[in-house]
Amino acid sequence: MLLFNIILIIHVSAFLLYLCRLALLFPIKQPAKDKWGLPLGILILCTGIALVALKYPAVNYYKIVPKLSLFLLVGVINGIYDKRPLSRWAYYLLLGATVLAALIAVVKV
């Protein structure tokens, strides 16, 4: 249980750092990409996989599948805007997908 909680804290911290990174880019007209997105995305993915592996028999697939599809959406948008600044619609889509993934994670069903 201790390992699960440590991985969960790392996962939530990386997720909050990504959300703060997006929030700091909000006032900028065409925000430039920084180098924190890829390491944070890899950390979120690896810790998410570890959390699912540790809780395997009792996995909530109705939460995991939408969050994984939102993660793929964020990855595709970041891949499209790899070398150029984010457009406004791409920024709002990233922010919306991130907040929606957070809401899916905390909603108790």
From TrEMBL:
Q: Which residues cross the membrane?
A: 6-26, 38-58, 64-82, 89-107
Q: Which UniProt keywords apply?
A: Membrane, Transmembrane, Transmembrane helix
Q: What is this protein called?
A: Uncharacterized protein
Q: Which organism is it from?
A: Chitinophaga eiseniae
